[in-house]
Write a structure and sequence with these properties.
This protein is of the alpha+beta class and 420 residues long. The chain has one domain: Cytochrome P450 (Cytochrome p450). It is built from 17 helices and 14 strands. A five-stranded mixed β-sheet has the order 1-2-10-7-3. Strands 4-14-11 form a three-stranded antiparallel β-sheet. Helix 7 runs antiparallel to helix 9. The longest helix has 32 residues. The protein is globular. Belongs to the cytochrome P450 family.
Length: 420
């Protein structure tokens, strides 16, 4: 068939593999993905990595909910190795990346994930209620004392950082450096990367060093935290290597921070832009908060996309893939699929069912901390809107598509009676 897309390598504005595409307006991006879904088959887009030593290659863009969920259920056919990020990683980063859950497949992925999965089940999350409530109250109080202010700096960054750091076992003294390193690591292997290879390597080294220090301490002084779980764990009779420990710390701190941070900021934006939905939520916070959180995740899609690699010849959505083909799963498009969601561009906190893929589709790579993330967001907004139902964004958010994450980096906020 004749594709309605320009797929020449020089046309980066119309190619979702390049930063220029993500600088388009939300309306332009939505229209693009709508056309991509309407094409009814994956479209191939060429890509030229920025590294001088890298040859050009390309990806098939998967945009529909059905095809993305099908691919996600079959890691034996669609692998996360050698990379689940856009670029084929450079030799300098490949060793560290191989220790990450993001770039693993079962059975190794299953074994590694099992080590910490019990810390993030719904039952385990209930164990953290006192911790989360305490952090939420503190962050809410600090935010309201400072309003008008930047919601991202004062709340969206602080809440997930303090919670995941406490659960994992990272001291308060390391919080600032963790935030800086996290922002760099989220851009590994992606064309929007604003950081040099040296900066990325430095951030990876920081996490490895931090984990090494924490591990040595916890071997002598065990505690009820994830670091202790990791240093005591064995897989097939062996303890985790230093590289595996460092990779675990990165995935826990990066994943535990970025998705919650993004959802918190998106939700304030959505409630501000949709006052009738905010009034509906305020009328019954306890009953409607779970639906509001799910809808904020769907609408924001903090995890924008993920890569998979075909390990054998196969067919999806009528398209024949060949061994070695690279695919991008555009969750941001699947969450607007007209065949799955009624009025997909509307923010509707009563949407039910809501089978979004905001934390990935069902399968082995579904977000490990999804239950924790949803719980944090719900507890925070219940507290915030109880004490400050008039809080709102005062300016449009500053969006950044950083690596795999759709984040908001600045969001001024105020209460109705305060200057903004």
């Amino acid at each position: 068939m004749t594709t309605p897309f320009r797929t020449d390598a020089e046309n980066t504005f119309d190619n979702p593999l390049y930063p220029a595409f993500w600088k388009r307006t939300a309306e332009e991006r939505d229209a693009f993905f709508s056309r991509l879904r309407a094409a009814r088959e994956p479209i191939f887009f060429p890509y030229q990595p920025p590294r001088a030593d890298a040859a050009p290659y390309g990806f098939y863009a998967l945009a529909r909910h059905a095809e993305i969920t099908e691919v996600s259920r079959h890691p034996e056919i669609f692998s996360s190795s050698p990379a689940s990020t856009l670029e084929d990683l450079s030799p300098a980063l490949q060793g560290d990346a191989e220790g990450s859950l993001l770039h693993m497949d079962p059975p190794r992925h299953t074994d590694m994930r099992r080590v910490v999965s019990q810390a993030f089940t719904p039952r385990a999350v209930r164990r953290y209620d006192e911790l989360i409530t305490g952090v939420v109250k503190a962050v809410t109080r600090e935010l309201l004392d400072k309003t008008p202010c930047d919601f991202v700096t004062e709340a969206a960054v602080q809440l997930p950082l303090r919670v995941i750091a406490a659960i994992v076992g990272v001291p308060v003294s390391a919080h600032d450096e963790v935030v800086k390193a996290t922002e760099v690591v989220t851009e590994i292997g992606d064309s929007t990367n604003r950081h040099s290879l040296a900066a990325v390597s430095e951030a990876v080294t920081y996490f490895n060093t931090l984990m090494g220090d924490l591990a040595r301490h916890r071997r002598v002084h065990p505690a009820d935290d994830v670091v202790t779980t990791l240093v005591q764990a064995t897989i097939n009779g062996r303890h985790l290597t230093d590289a595996e420990l460092g990779a675990f710390l990165r995935i826990l701190l990066v994943g535990g921070n970025d998705t919650v941070r993004s959802t918190l900021a998106h939700m304030l934006t959505l409630l501000t832009e949709n006052p009738e939905q905010k009034r509906l939520l305020l009328a019954d916070l306890d009953e409607r908060m779970p639906g509001a959180v799910e809808e904020a995740i769907r609408h924001a899609t903090p995890g924008t996309w993920m890569r998979r690699n075909a390990t054998q010849d196969t067919t999806v959505a009528g398209h024949a893939f060949r061994t070695g083909d690279r695919l991008i799963l555009y969750y941001i498009s699947a969450n607007r699929d007209e065949e799955v969601f009624d009025r997909p561009y509307a923010f509707d906190i009563t949407r039910n069912p809501n089978p979004h893929v905001g934390f990935g589709a069902a399968g082995p790579h579904y977000c490990l901390g999804a239950h924790l993330a949803k719980h944090e967001v719900g507890v925070f907004y219940r507290e915030l809107l109880t004490h400050a139902p008039d809080i709102h964004a005062t300016e449009p958010p500053v969006h950044t598509y950083s690596g795999l994450i759709h984040s908001i980096t600045r969001l001024p906020c105020a209460r109705s009676g305060s200057a903004g």
